[in-house]
Model the fold of this input.
Amino acid sequence: MHLEAVILAAGQGTRLRDAAGGISKQFLDYRGEPLYLHCARTLARCARIRGLIFVFPPHAIETEAARLAALRPDLGLPLRIAAGGEQRRDSVRRGLAALSPEADAVLIHDAARPFVSPALINRVIEALERGAEGVVPGLPPTDTIKVVDADRRVDFTPDRRRLAAVQTPQGFRTALLREAHDAVPTDAEGVTDDASLLERCGRSVLVVPGESGNVKITTPEDLACLSDPEETVPVTGYGYDVHRYAGPNEGDRSRPLRLGGVSIPGAPGVLAHSDGDVLLHALVDAVLGCFAGGDIGLLFPDSDPALEGVNSAVLLDEVLDRAAQAGVRPVHLDLTVVAQVPKIAPHREAIRKNLSRLTGLDVSRISIKATTEEHLGFTGERKGLKAVAVVSALRRFNAPAR
Ligand code: MG
Done:
């Protein structure tokens, strides 16, 4: 089977064009490319498709050909362009005329369905390979459907199990579709898709499962579908902080040591403007790192008298709020205290528990590690201590990564 696909981008779509500022829907820009190119990329990912034909309105051919030449979409397939006609049916016919002579099977797809999946396309192709004359993707309607008469009175309610709302791509034996186009008069009523032409000719059309995501952009409300979908990605924030232990003559400026909001009795006091909780400070910076939110010194300057002796848990609270507003949800903490003194192990579980309370994370997601620097450097010489924090989080983006 030699299969090619015709992408119909010739419609006028006046309902939507006015709402979109005079641009026909298939030419709307979505993620930096015209809408019609999105389904083309998906079709090109299906290995059995050997060529693509774009059908554009005659007045748009030059512009779109230039646009495609500039975008140079590397679809890995021969691309051809055909001029559409007055009606959808005319456009399909011209698309069929542009198929390569060996194309014995064809998919007809509407460019206004940009979210079609390769799985759906392959279902249509596989049914053709199994010998179907025509194939349409369809879904059972979720609404109850009524057949009404000319006075809008309900005539009857068809059995929903026998109904299918059909989508594109629709697949055909090329010869049969051409035959049907020739056989059915152009003024025939109720011909709204290609499958109905085959049906009129007594050919069999098979329905394969469609997809609810394969929506057709038709009304201004549908434009909402085109705003970039949210994307949730794992992010990592890193924080680092150091505090000096108070010397023998600095006792009046020293703060009793707290780590992760837990008092560590008997430990050296630290010098700090705030309460000097080195572990919470590293954690605050790591949370900020998850959304490029600046650093603790920027947000809470030590020149601010209001922050004199402030409980660092309050700072963490503020930063977690900002993180939530930025779409960040921390899911795991890995914190390391580097100190010669005091010993951290006896306090580890109390710190985990308190951080669980402060962050709302289960303790199983909070790792506290401790190490010394083997009597080397300022921690080894007991001049101070440091902490390192790594926060793993999920961040919701509403713009694509570049
Ligand atoms: Mg600090």
Q: What stands out?
A: The mean pLDDT is 91.
